[in-house]
Amino acid sequence: MKKINNIFQEEAYHYVTEAGLNVFIIEKKGFKRSVAAYGTPFGGIHLNQIVDGEKVTHKKGLAHFLEHKMFEDEKGDLLSQFTDLGANANAFTSYDQTVYYFNTNDSIEEPLKLLIHLINRIHLDEASIEKEKGIIVEELRMYEKNPNMNLLMKTYENVYHHFPLRYDIGGTEESVNATTLEDVLAAYNYNYNPKKMALVVVTGEAKEDVKRIIDKSKIRSSNVSEVTNVFQTEPYSVLKEHDQYYFAVNTPKSSLSFKFKYDGKNIMRDEFTIRSILSLNFSQLNGDYQNWLDEDIINDYFSYDVDLRDGFGVIYFFNEGNKNEEFKELIMNKMNNLEIDEVLLNQSIKRHYGNSILSLSQYDRYAINVMSCFFKNESYYDYLSFIKDFSIKDIHNVLPYLSDYSISHTEMLPKRNK
Hints:
It is a single chain. The protein is of the alpha+beta class and 418 residues long. A seven-stranded mixed β-sheet has the order 1-2-3-9-4-8-7, with helices on both faces. It has a five-stranded mixed β-sheet with strand order 11-15-12-14-13, with helices on both faces. α1 crosses α7. The longest helix is centred in the N-terminal third of the chain and has 20 residues. The chain is globular and about 60 Å long.
């Protein structure tokens, strides 16, 4: 095991198992709680891959479908087995990754063995696949009826021409119903390859004992050598500049999206930097923010975020209220006149850095952050150091990206009475 150097006095270690699995062990001496997260960089956007030179196309929602099936075992539901061991287990699929994790205040050995077992075998048949389809379709219908999720997906559909964010993580009813046992097994074989995956353990137990448990466990080998994700070239322009539709809401909702060219080399750091710019201009750090609230141009529903990808980026604003045009005008004016107050910036960064350091004591968050950074070729500790040393120079490095963009405005209006 190699110690990971960091300025935060964290006892963090990394090694690679014989099967090629990257393992991170963070030793928290004197603490009882343990968390382990085991994940793969296979999520909702990974629909096209090159597997050992051959192109493979996955059905929409396949990563999510596979996650649903992984807890099945010949001995019964694995979630209940974690509970029997005194551990709380769960999993999630995002657009970028799928992660399985547990936490416990008891000995980590048996839950960790079970987590490794869960990932390194799959127990499926045709009947279980067919049964799951109905469950996932109901889940999709539920999300479709949720106004916030519906607006989000409609926004993605209007922004993107090809990029798979325009599809729900769970897929579509059509893609789910067309999913076969062979589809699920192929996705597992290609993407639950130990050479692609990572295991992160945050624990009060000795690192040597944790390593012994992992090394004695059976980790599958894979006959797949190389898996590369492939994406169709996404235009810098939005697909639809304006879209207005009706939904079962009492108050109108809307989104405003700014799509731009991006060719940066460090997505995580640039996303943090752009969020800092947005915070200075569109949060309570801006002296006009309370006036926007008082004038009902925005309300507590108002939010914003940025998503950077290879070749492009998008900034999203979401709002609720009866002043959609005023909201649109306000956001566009501010985006064209972004202000950087260095004093406020430094105050904001200090608060964010303090919150980030807090994550080192929140084990679930800590483990998943280490894993997510690893999948993005970033060290979590280097990322935290970047925040610590952040300055206005970093702002000026990304501002040029925000000078030229394509805009999409999506409005959700209350259904008219017949």
